[in-house]
Amino acid sequence: MKALKWRPGLPAILPSWFFIGSVIILIAVIITVTIKDLNRGRDIEIQTLLEKSTVLIRAFESGTRTGMGMRWRHDQRQTLVEEMAYQPGILYIAITDTSGRVLAHSDPDKVGAQLYTPQEMQNLHVAQTEQWRITPFVDEQDKHQSAFEVYRFFKPLKRMPGHRMHMGNKRPDTYWSNDIEDEDQDRNVIFTAFDTSALEASQAKDIRNTIIFLSILGLLALASILSLFWAKRYQRSSRQLQDSKAFSSEIISNLPIGLITTNEHRQISVVNHTAEKILGHSAIGLSGRNIKQALPDNWNQLAGNEHNHQPVIEREIDYTLTSGQIIPLSISVANIVNGSGNFLGNVFIFRDMREVRQLQEEIRRKEKMAAIGNLAAGVAHEIRNPLSSIKGFAKYFEGRSEQGSEEQELAKVMAKEVDRLNRVITELLELVRPTDLRIQRVNICEVIEHSLHLIRQDAETKHINILFKAEPDLPLVDIDPDRFTQALLNLYLNAIQAIGSNGSLEVHLSINAASELQLVVKDSGKGIPADNLTNIFNPYFTTKASGTGLGLTVVQKVVEEHQGKISVTSQLSTGTSFELIIPIKHSPSIQEASDHDHS
C-alpha cells in the first residue's frame, strides 16, 4: 500500500460531517454565551434598580427617624413621600399597613385606598429584607406599563436607651428602640416602584443586537455549509471531469484508428498514437497548427464549412508520406457542435487501408487460384491424353526418319514441346493442389547451403559471386526441406536471370525481434519496375520470353504453407530483395490436422 503523502489539498477531503458538526457546536457555544450575557446584563440592571430602591427606602426611613425626633406628624410623612417621589424614574412610593391600605403615597389621592388586597399582601410574603418584582402599572394618562417594585417592612425607630448609635463628634450619643408610636404600632410595608422603560429598552436593544448577531452568525454558518457543499460538489465534479478526461484520453490513445480533433479556430488539439504512426508526424509537431497548414488540401475540402456540413463517412483517399510513399486511407470527417448549435471544431477519423487492400488482394488471388485449379483439373484431364498420343506419334516418326534428317529433328522438337506442356500442366496442378508438407526439425543453415550448392556452378559460369551470412547459434526450424529448397531455387534462378553476369547474390539469415526466422535473398540485378511489383506473385505474370510466370507464385505458396510471409523491395539498376519470415515452430493447421487424422 502506498503511504499517504501530505499535499496542499488534503484538508479539503476531511469528512463533511466533521466540519458541519464543528459549526453547529460553535454556534451552540456562541448562543449559550450570548444568552448568559443577556441574563447577566439584565441582572445588572435589576441589581442597579434594587440598590436604588434600597437606598431610597433607607433614605426615607432616615428622614422618618429624623422627623420622629421632631414631633413627626402624618402630614409631614406624606410630604416627605411626595418630595422623594419627585426624583427621576420613580413611579410611586407608598406605605401601607399589612392589609394593603395606603397610609402614605406619592399620589395624595390614593391615601386611604387599597393598594393591594389582603390576599395579595399575603401572597407577597413581605419580609425584613428587600424583595422585588415586575408588576403592571397604569399611569395618570391610563397608559399601561411595567414597574420595578421593591418592598419590605417599614419600621421607623424610636429614641430610648438600650441601643446606641454613634452620630459623630458634633452630636451626643442617641438611643433608639424598636417600639413604634401611634399607627406604627402595627407593622407597615413600604413600596417603591421605578420605571422599567430604561430596563426594557436596554433589554430590547440587547435582544435586538443579539438577534442581529445570531442572524449574521447563522448566515455565516449557512454560507459556510453552502460553501462546503459547493466545494464538495466542485471537488466531485472536478474529480468526475478528471476521470472522464482520463477515460476518454485512454480510449483515444488506444484506438486502433487514427483520430485528429480541432478547436473552433480549426487548430489541431488532439492527435492520438495511431494517427502519429499512420501520418509519420508527432503529436507535438501537429498540435496547435491550423489544418490548412498541417493537413492536405483534400482533407480541408472534406472538412467543409462550419454551417450545414454533412459528415463524410469512409471516404477513401491517397496520402503521401514524407518519404514519398503513397498509402491508401479511409477517412471520416464530422463537425463537433454543442447543444446550442455552436461550432466547436472538427473530428477526423481515418485508418490505414494497406492491410485491407492486401487482404482484398489475397482474396482475389485465392479466388483466381481456385478458378485456375478448376481449370487445371479439366485441362490436365482433357489435354494429357492427347499429348501422350502426340508424343507417341513424334517418337514413331523420329524412328522412321533418317538419321540427321530434317524430319527426325522436327519429331524431336515435337516430343520436347509435349514434355514442356506436360511440365507446365504439372506445375499448374502443383500450384493449386493442396500440398502434404513433411515437416521436419532441421538445421536451416544446412538447407540453405545445400540449395546454394545446386546453383553454384551456374553462378560461377556467369561470374556471379554468392555470399551467405547467418547469425551464430540459430535454433532448429520446423520446415519441409524439399519444398523449402524448391522455393529457394526459384528465387536463386530468378536472381541469376536478373543479374545476367558479373554480379552478386546474397543470402542473409537471422532471428528478428518477434523470434521468427528472417531470410533475405538479395541480388544486384536490373530490378523490377514499380508497376510490376504488385503483380509478380500473380500466376502466369512474367516479363521473360521463355518463362511460365509460375515460379514466384510457387514460392509464395510454399512460404504461406509454412505459415510465413514474403515481401519484396526493388529499385531499378540496383537490385531486388526478397524477405521471407518463417516461424521457428510450425503449428499444424486445421486442414493439416484433419489430413493427419485421416491418414
**Radius of gyration in whole Å, from Cα?**
61 Å
Q: What general outline do the C-alpha atoms trace?
A: rod-shaped
Distance between the termini: 59 Å
Low-confidence stretches: 1-13, 158-185
Q: Major beta sheet, specifics?
A: 5 strands, antiparallel
Assembly category: single chain
Fraction of helical residues: 40-55%
Q: Classify the beta-strand content into a percent band.
A: 15-25%
Q: Please, what is the average pLDDT? A: 79
Supply the number of helical segments.
15
Number of strands: 19
Q: What topology, given as strand order, has the largest sheet?
A: 2-1-7-4-3
Q: Structural class of the helices, strands and pairings? A: alpha+beta
Summarize the structure.
By secondary structure, the protein is an alpha+beta fold.
Describe this structure in words.
This protein is 48% helix and 23% strand. By secondary structure, the chain is an alpha+beta fold. It has a five-stranded antiparallel β-sheet with strand order 2-1-7-4-3. Helix 1 packs antiparallel against helix 2. It is rod-shaped and about 195 Å long.
Keywords:
single chain; 599 residues; alpha+beta; five-stranded antiparallel beta sheet
Topology:
Elements: H1 16-68, H2 74-84, E1 90-96, E2 102-105, H3 118-124, E3 131-138, E4 144-154, E5 158-165, E6 174-177, E7 188-195, H4 197-253, E8 258-262, E9 268-271, H5 273-279, H6 283-286, H7 291-294, H8 297-303, E10 312-320, E11 326-337, E12 343-352, H9 354-400, H10 406-432, E13 440-442, H11 444-461, E14 464-470, E15 477-479, H12 481-499, E16 503-511, E17 516-523, H13 530-533, H14 551-561, E18 565-571, E19 575-583, H15 590-598
Parallel strand pairs: 14-16
Antiparallel strand pairs: 1-2, 1-7, 3-4, 4-7, 5-6, 8-9, 8-12, 10-11, 11-12, 13-15, 16-17, 17-19, 18-19
Helix pairs in contact: 1-2, 1-4, 9-10, 11-12, 12-14
